[in-house]
Amino acid sequence: MNKEILQPEVQKFIDDNLKTDVHRILLSKPKFNNVSQKELVEQIESKLKAKTKLPTWFEATTIYYPNKLNLSQTSSEITANYKASLMSGKAIVDVTGGFGVDSFAFAQKFEHVTHIERNNDLSLIAQHNFEQLEADNISCIADDGLEFLRNTPNSFDWLYIDPSRRDKNNKKVYYLSDCEPNIATETSFLFTKANNLLIKTGPLLDLKIGLTELSNVKEIHIVAVNNDVKEILWLMTKNFEQEPSIKTINFKNSLKQEFNFKPSDEVNAMPTFSIPQTYLYEPNAAILKSGSFQFVGEYFKLKKLHANSHLYTSKELITFPGRVFKIENIYEYSKKSFKKSGIEKANITTRNFPDSVAEIRKKLGLKEGGKNYLFCTKNLDGNLILISCVKH
């Protein structure tokens, strides 16, 4: 951590150059004796990214940022606040603290937060930023999180862990057992230090595999922002042995789309099918990730277009956690049939369809964009169809 970056003249330069081409800065003569051009560019790039991802940090003064790669791996402010909403108590340990976005959110809900980060530089950065943000109930300790827990005599209300999803060669890993720390083998020990655990995993982890690796899972939260799944949260409670709840949430602008169910709901659901009616419904990404392909239709009393399409329809308009469209026409998948539509530009989505979007555009001679939406899927008879819609 180069404290010279915190000098007023350096901070002013960073703020004044947020829209400047960083390559010009890199190639220009050094501006300051003790701050390199590379360090300036790192601060500019990360602060610019924080404008939308971490607005509280962006608006605060004298924040020290890590490089943009480290910043891209941290939680966004919106997902951190959501995690904090799931917990409360006197004391929590953020076992893999990182830049500290989650710890700051937890500080609004707990009397005391312990932020553990084994990278000493990152620990110092987090501590400095907490001071700037006036979060005086967070203690920063530069240590390995598990070692800290093994050595402390204290117990806590909650532990939060975001295992690293990269191996020793910096390659991405996807199974919990390959992450560091390996939660699957450490669960018994962790429950000696707290009765409640919240584990964050990446969006690619299969829920069924996760449930085989983890025990005492009370809730699984699938969190999406603007229809992009960002993280999966595993809320674990000591000695909990009942069926877990699966909770999906999609933050879309100022809206919050939520849909909850249990695995048995999905197993026992009895979908009904129909040809496309007046409205078409596409579940948001969090629901699709959850695997609720039958129960979501049953819950909202919608008809399914095909067993494997995961698109739904109704005659009457309903409020739905996903995209909603008004169906205008239905065409066979052929250039001759579609030519009658007169559509030259469309946004294409495929569901249970053999051709790629690029192949469809080429075959139909369609440009990208516009107000028309084209869903390429199968009907009840398994025939390929094109559903022309407008967004509701």
UniProtKB/TrEMBL annotation:
Give residue ranges for domain PG-1098 ferredoxin-like. 279-321
Q: Where are the transmembrane segments?
A: none
Signal sequence span is none
Limits of the THUMP-like domain: 322-389
Q: A Pfam family in this protein? A: PG_1098_Fer
Name used for this protein in its record: Uncharacterized protein
Which organism is this entry from? Maribacter litoralis
